[in-house]
Structures are given as C-alpha cells and as structure tokens.
Specification:
- By secondary structure, the chain is an alpha+beta fold.
- It has three domains: about 90 residues, Butyryl-Coa Dehydrogenase, subunit A, domain 1, CATH 1.10.540; about 110 residues, Butyryl-CoA Dehydrogenase, subunit A, domain 2 (Beta Barrel), CATH 2.40.110.10; about 160 residues, Up-down Bundle (Butyryl-CoA Dehydrogenase, subunit A, domain 3).
- It is about 50% helix and about 15% strand.
- It has twelve helices and ten strands.
- It has a four-stranded mixed beta sheet.
- It is globular and about 80 Å long.
- InterPro entries: Acyl-CoA_dehydrogenase, Acyl-CoA_Oxase/DH_mid-dom, Acyl-CoA_Oxase/DH_mid-dom_sf, AcylCo_DH-like_C, AcylCo_DH/oxidase_C, AcylCoA_DH/ox_N, AcylCoA_DH/ox_N_sf, AcylCoA_DH/oxidase_NM_dom_sf.
- GO terms for molecular function: acyl-CoA dehydrogenase activity; flavin adenine dinucleotide binding.
- Homodimer.
Length: about 400
C-alpha cells in the first residue's frame, strides 16, 4: 500500500496562497485590536475589519475549503484540508475568515449529508454565504457529555408539532447563532443506552422557549459557550433533521471529521509553540551559553519535535482513510487523543523555556495553554477515546487473532 502525502502542485499553490493571505493580510489586520496594551480599533472597526477579511478571502478563492465546488467551496479532500487548516490556524481568526471554523464547519457537513433540499436552501446556503452562524446543542449538565444516549432533553409529539423541554450547556456560538441543530430524546420505549432514541431538530433563533441563561466563564474567559434552558419550545415536524430516531447517528457522523479538523488546527498551535521555544532558546544566554546549547532544553525541543512529527503523520493518515471511504473511527480517536495531549505538552515546554515571560501575557503562550487544556475533553474526553481504542483493538484480536487492523492497518 503506497502512502504518499506529497501534495499535487495545485494544492501546494493553494497552501502558499493561504499562508500568504494569513501572514500578510489577516494577522496584520487584526493585530491592532488584539494588542493587549493598546487596542487601536473600536469594536465596530474590528467587526468591519474581520468581515472585510472574509470578503477578501472569498474574492481570492480561499472560501469554504472543506465544501464541494458545486456548493461554492474549494472541493478539497481531508488530506488537502489538513494543510489549509494548519496554515489558517496560525491565527485564532484564520479558520473563521476562510469560513471553515467550528461549529459552522461541522454543521455544514451535517446539513449537506442529512438535510432535505428545502433545509439545505434555508439553513445550509446562508452558512455557506457567511451571512448566518449556527450552533450544535447536544451537551447537558445533568448527564455525561461523552454519552449522548443519556440525553434528557425531551421532544414529545403534540399533533403536527413537537414540544421540547430540557437543559443544555457549553453550547458554543449560541448567542451569535441564527439557528441551532438540537438533539433531543423522542423515543421513550427503548432501553437506556439505545442509540435510536434521539432525534435532531433545526431551531430558528431566537425562539419562544429557547432561553439563553448565561455565557459560562471558562479558564480563558467568557467566550460564547452558553447555558440554555428549553421550556415548551414548539417546532413543526418539518424541523426534524435526518429522520426521527437518527439523532445519535447524525451526531457521530458530524463529530468524526470535526475531531480531525480540530487536530489540524491544534497542530498549527503546537508548531507555533515549538517555533517560539526554539527562537527563545537561540536568543537567551544563561550560565555561560545559550539555552539552545543546554541538554535539558535540547531534550524539550527534541521531545516536542518528535511528538509534532507523530501528530502530523497520524492526522494525515486518518485524513487519507476518510478520503478513501474507509473506516476511520479508530485512527481519528487515536489522533484526537494524541494531538490534544501533545499540544498541552508542547505549549507547556515552550512556557518553561520562556520562564516568567511565558507565564505572562506578553507572549501568546499563556492564552494558548488555557485553550490547549480544553482540547483534552472537547469532542470526547481522553478516557472515552482510550476506551473505544481498546474495545476496537480487542475486537480486532478476537476476529483475526491479530491487533494489526486496530493499529492503522499499515503494511508493516
């Protein structure tokens, strides 16, 4: 089996254009607002600036890299998308400017695959055009977020309508969303843990019965993760997305590639941290030599370089399996777990090499570390992925007497 991640010339050209656009246009444009000491731009000027960046991205053909060409996208496969996401994520706003940021990215894939023609025109088209934003409402405070079969939010049929009651939280982008994809339990005669009990609904926002209680403060501040109380929310039957009882399948379909897209962006952050670590080591003189000449620092650099190499290979291989239509669940779980943890370790080492400067907010490392901690439970906690990886490894051995298929199915 040939494994070749060399990009075609046209894709190398796209990567170069994305890199140039992000480095030469996006980063300089938003720097005055993000400067911690003096924010030169007002909020209104900032909004005008970032929406103008979106317009320019579209003009330059760098819009919707993850979507098919017939829907206005760049038509890239997941391997090619990896290099676009990695370049875009060199700045926090990069993926959003190219309109390939979470949660809209995953919702676009979901609507394209599960939506009716009418739903695609009403909900998907505005997302693609960048005139609306969305959210995905699944997680609840009363039950484990990693087990959606336990969802308590209920949807009960009342004539031609559904009446929905429940409680959601950490719903990213909810306050900016024009609509939500809401997961609720509709089948009450199935045993607990059944995967056919939930249904997905499309909810136009704002809506009577959808109560945005608060933005939850996190380690990195209040950044758009809402707590929602749903009280007697009424929806027509046409609001069902993907068919009754398919909410679990829809959610898993959405989360698989979305997990890998997160990894693509995390690799970019890890690479930035490693660059900063090496730059600091070559600049800082202490006890008779540069930090770069000291073995302890060299080990941190070496460990980070090896981990980043592994991250890239894992993501590229998982992406190639998605592009080939193969079962990618184990590889994506492995990549999600490994990349999230590597990001935490690499940023932590970069802070260590920078000393007190790294702990301060004079560099981006402190904020990067706060965000990195989130990666270990976003889209599935470490332990859930480890459990699934172990289950599939055991299944492979039981079926074939070998664990080979559970370790990438590679030719060695």
């Amino acid at each position: 089996m040939a494994i070749d991640f060399t990009l075609a010339p046209e894709h190398e050209e796209i990567r170069a254009r994305v890199r140039a656009f992000v480095q030469e246009t996006v980063i300089p444009a938003v720097k005055p607002f993000e400067d911690s000491e003096e924010k030169v731009l007002t909020r209104e000027e900032y909004l005008r600036t970032i929406f103008d960046l979106r317009r320019r991205a579209r003009q330059e053909g760098l819009w919707l890299p993850h979507m098919p060409k017939e829907w206005g996208g760049m038509g890239l496969g997941h391997v090619e998308l990896a290099m676009v996401q990695a370049e875009a994520a060199k700045t926090r706003l990069g993926p959003w400017v190219l309109n390939c940021a979470a949660p809209d990215e995953g919702n676009m894939h979901t609507l394209l695959h599960w939506g009716t023609d009418e739903q695609k025109e009403r909900y998907l088209r505005p997302l693609l055009d960048g005139v609306k934003m969305s959210c995905f409402a699944m997680t609840e405070p009363e039950v484990a977020g990693s087990d959606p079969t336990l969802i308590r939010t209920s949807a009960v049929k009342d004539g031609d309508e559904w009446v929905i009651n429940g409680h959601k939280w950490f719903i990213s982008n909810a306050r900016r969303a024009s609509f939500a994809i809401l997961i609720a339990k509709t089948e009450f005669d199935l045993p607990e843990g059944a995967r056919g009990a939930n249904t997905a609904f499309l909810v136009d926002l704002p809506a009577d019965g959808w109560n945005d209680v608060r933005e939850i403060e996190t380690m990195h501040g209040s950044t758009g993760h809402s707590e929602i109380v749903i009280t007697d929310l009424r929806l027509p039957d046409s609001a069902v997305l993907g068919g009754r009882g398919n909410g679990h399948r829809l959610g898993q379909y959405r989360l698989g590639p979305a997990r890998l897209a997160h990894c693509m962006r995390w690799i970019s952050q890890a690479e930035t941290a490693l660059d900063m670590m090496v730059g600091r080591a070559l600049d800082r003189f202490s006890h008779g030599s540069l930090l770069a000449d000291k073995q302890g620092v060299q080990w941190m650099i070496a460990d980070s370089a090896m981990e980043l190499y592994q991250c890239k290979l894992m993501v590229l291989h998982a992406a190639s399996k998605i592009d080939k239509g193969e079962d990618f669940r184990t590889e994506v779980s492995m990549a999600k777990h490994f990349v999230a943890n590597s990001l935490n370790r690499i940023v932590d080492r970069a802070i260590q090499v920078h000393g007190a400067l790294g702990y301060s907010t004079d560099t981006p490392l402190a904020h990067m570390f706060q965000h990195a901690r989130w990666a270990r439970f976003a889209d599935g906690a470490d332990e859930i992925h480890q459990m699934r990886i172990a289950e599939r490894t055991i299944e492979a051995y039981r079926a074939t007497g070998s664990t080979r298929s559970a370790t990438g199915g590679l030719p060695l």
